[in-house]
Design goal:
alpha/beta; Spore Coat Polysaccharide Biosynthesis Protein SpsA, Chain A; 9 helices; 20% strand
Length: 327
């Protein structure tokens, strides 16, 4: 993990004795304009015992300085000397929250805008429903293929062997204060810090993709429930299927790794076969219909994941090499 250049707990933190302390964590990587909007909305929430931490994932000194100049002492900026990926960056913020003795930590994508009442709704739900280890607000979004009703996430399910995730895109019944769910998206994970003491933090070697599903499954395996609080709302401003080579590589590699972590070798083998079929279809579409690029990144991801599961390569070394090559 990269050394934090900043990140000591400030002496002027709100008194956590009156209401549970919530620390909201935003990971920034070369997304300063989106991060500004997200942080401004977090600073406007109506919950009094709330601190905001931005973890900059080696975007460069200019973005770090821009954040500090824009928000001053109202937020804590932690600058990592290297890009730790989404989970690794979030872990720096979670460690800060732990040192601050926070009761809850909210990990958020930087391309979100927060309703001022959302933190209060999430805290109320967590205080009432003590068996829940992680919750999410309902995540709205502009109407599009992934949010046909203007809702991007209102619950979800993941099948690790088939390598599929599904979001509920219909609002939960208002009669249900908390809607149980199969996994919570990393876009807005409201975490009980006590639960994290049992499960541990995000598994940093994922770097990108599947870290939220992994932590959700570890929560369930430790006996904690997962839920969505429909009264709490945020907006996901930027979303959609990103098709970069880096994304495709990590999606395929990490799908093998997460299947092995939770379903063991047999599950990893099933995931490998599911993804091989998917890559073969992409290859056929590319060659026969000239529809899209050859699945080179996917193939690298498949074999990197399989090699790591079989103990032939270390996960972090495989990831580092692929990032250097920019796939």
């Amino acid at each position: 993990m990269g050394r934090a250049m900043s990140g000591k707990v400030r002496p002027d933190l709100p008194d956590a004795g009156a209401m549970p302390l919530v620390v909201s964590i935003v990971v920034n990587y070369r997304g300063i304009e989106q991060t500004r909007v997200c942080v401004a909305s977090l600073l406007a929430v109506d919950y009094p015992n709330h601190s905001v931490v931005v973890v900059d994932n080696a975007s460069g000194e200019a973005e770090v300085q821009a954040l500090r100049e824009a928000f001053g002492e109202s937020i804590e900026v932690i600058a990592s000397e290297r890009n730790l990926g989404y989970g690794g960056g979030a872990n720096l913020g979670l460690e800060w929250a732990r040192a601050a003795e926070a009761v809850y930590a909210w990990v958020l994508n930087n391309d979100t805008e927060i309703d001022p009442r959302s933190v209060g709704h999430l805290v109320d739900a967590m205080e009432r429903e003590t068996e829940y280890g992680v919750m999410s607000p309902q995540i709205d979004a502009p109407i599009g293929p992934e949010s046909p009703n203007g809702i991007w996430y209102a619950g979800g399910a993941a099948d690790l062997a088939r390598v599929t995730t599904k979001h509920e895109v219909v609002a939960a019944s208002p009669a249900l204060a908390v809607m149980p769910t199969g996994y919570v998206t990393g876009c807005a994970m409201f975490l009980r810090c006590k639960a994290l003491e049992q499960t541990g933090l995000f598994w940093a070697p994922f770097f990108l993709y599947w870290e939220d599903v992994d932590l959700s499954f570890r929560m369930r395996e430790a006996g904690w429930r997962l839920g969505v609080v429909a009264a709490a709302r945020i907006v996901h401003l930027v979303h959609g299927s990103v098709q970069s080579k880096v994304v495709r590589y990590y999606y395929y590699r990490n799908a093998i790794l997460i299947a092995d972590r939770h379903l063991h070798r047999r599950g990893a083998a099933r995931a490998f076969m599911s993804l091989t079929t998917r890559a073969a279809r992409r290859l056929a579409a590319s060659l026969l219909k000239r529809d899209g690029p050859l699945p080179i990144a996917e193939t690298r991801g498949l074999f990197a994941g399989a090699a790591a599961v079989l103990g032939l390569r270390r996960v972090d070394n495989v990831a580092a090499r692929e990032r250097r090559r920019a796939i």
